[in-house]
Amino acid sequence: MRDEAEIRGHRRTYIGALPGRILQTMRRAGTVNPLFMLDEVDKLGQDFRGDPSSALLEVLDPEQNHAFSDHYLELAYDLSKVMFITTANSIGPIPSALLDRMELIEFPGYIEEEKLEIARRFLIPRQLEEAGLDGDKLFFLDQALKRMIREYTYEAGVRNLEREIGRVCRKIARTKAEGKKYPTRVSPTSVERFLGPPQFFDIEAERQDEAGVATAIAWTENGGEIMPVEVLLMEGKGNLQITGQIGNVMQESAQAAFSYLKSRADQLKLDVQLFENLDIHIHIPEGAIPKDGPSAGITICTALISAFTGREVHKEVGMTGEITLRGRVLPVGGIREKVLAAHRAGLRTVIMPRRNAKDLIDVPKRARSELTIVLVDHIDQVLDVALNPAPARPQPSRRGGRKTSKKEEQPGEPETRE
Q: Which of 211, 304, 212 has its CA nearest to residue 258?
C-alpha cells in the first residue's frame, strides 16, 4: 500500500471517489465491531501520493480512532470498537510512532517438537489428499520426519517441510499409478531415496576434550546452533587476530575477553612475557556465515584461558553469555532456541547467565530434564565447570616453534643485564 487515500478515502470532488478501505470493508461486513487483519504492515510504502503509516496512526490509536475522519464522508466515525491485528516479519521498518500504538507479541520460530506435531496433524493429511493417497495407509515415522527437518530444511516455519513431504507423497503416488509395489511406511533410510542426498548438516559436538576449543551456543533466525570457538597460539609479537566473518560486537567481546585474561595472569600463573611473544588467532568456523552479538563472550574467554593454561575444555559443555572486563556474566537472548540446540547436538551441560533463569520456563521439560543447566554470575564459575584440572606443568597450547622468554645467549659470550 502506497496511497494514503486507500485508508482515508478520496475527496468527493474527484471522479470515481470512494471511501477508504476501512469503511468499505466495514460496510461489506455489515458490523461496527469487525476484526481487521493488516498483513505485512512493515511493507508500507512512501511516495508523492502520501504516507499510509501516518494515516494508520489515527486508525490504530484507541485515543483518536473514536473520531476517525474519512475524506469521502467528511464526518467523524467511531472505530473504537474495531479490533486491529497487524503482522510483520521485522519491526525495524515500522515507524516508531506507529509501533508505539501497538501491543507487540513476538512469535519465535518453531522448535523440532512443534514441527513434528504440525506435520503429523496438518501437513501430512493435506499432502496425502493432494497426492491422491488419502485412502491409503501411508505412515511417516517420527525419525523420518526428524531427518527431513534437520537435513532437508533450514527454516523457522514449516513451508519447506511441507514441500518435502509433498515430494515424497507424489513419488509414492507415481509408483502406485505405475502399478508397482509402493511403500506404506516412510522410514529414515527411505527419505534419502525419495529426496536425494541431505542438503544441510548440523555441526556436531566435539568428540574429545581439547585445549583451546570451546563450544558456544548461538541463536539464528532459523533456530539455535552450536558454534565451536578455536584459539591457536603461535610465535609472534603479541598480535590478536579474529576470523570467521564476525561483526563488530563479537570482535569487541573477544577484546574484552583477552583483556580480562591479561588482568588475571597472576591468578592463572601465566608469565606476562607470553603475551608479548605469542600471536593469538581466534577463529569461528563456517567463515562464510556472518556472525555477531555479545553472547559468545564467555566462550571466547574460556577458549583463551584453556589455550594459555593447557587445561582442556569438556567436550559436552556448551555456553552462552556476555562478559565484562571484570569477568561478570551478563544475560543474553534466544535462550529457548539455544538450549534446544545444545540438547539436539548431544551436549550434556549448558552454562548460561543466572539472570536468564526466567527464560527456562519456555524450554520443554524433556530438554530441561536431560541437560545439566548451570547458572553463573562470574567467569570463574564458568571455568570451574568447563575446564579440566590443570596439568602438572602448564604450557601454552600452540603448534610449532618454541617459547623463548629472553634473548638466547650465544656460547662464549657473557650474559648482559640491564
A: 304
CB of 357 closer than 8 Å to CB of 351: no
- 3-class DSSP string for 176-219: HHCCCCCCCEECHHHHHHHHCCCCCCCCCCCCCCECCEEEEEEE
pLDDT tens, residue by residue, 175-211: 999 988 888 899 999 999 999 998 887 777 777 888 8
Cite the active site residues: 295, 338
Q: How far is CA 102 from CA 57, 65, 75, 85, 281, in A?
A: 10, 13, 25, 9, 46
Domains, the chain, in order of start with CATH, read 5-100 (3.40.50.300), 112-195 (1.10.8.60), 213-386 (3.30.230.10)
Residue 365's CB is within 10 A of a number of other CB atoms, namely 7
φ/ψ (deg, to 5) at 324: -105, 175
H helix or E strand, kind and range, residue 223: strand 223-235
Can you tell me the distance from the alpha carbon of 227 to that of 345, in angstroms, rounded to the nearest whole number?
Answer: 11
| CB-based contact 276:238 (threshold 8 Å) | yes
- Type and span of the H or E element at 338: helix 335-345
Q: Give the C-alpha separation, 329 to 214, whole Å.
A: 16
Instruction: Supply the pTM of this predicted model.
Output: 0.74
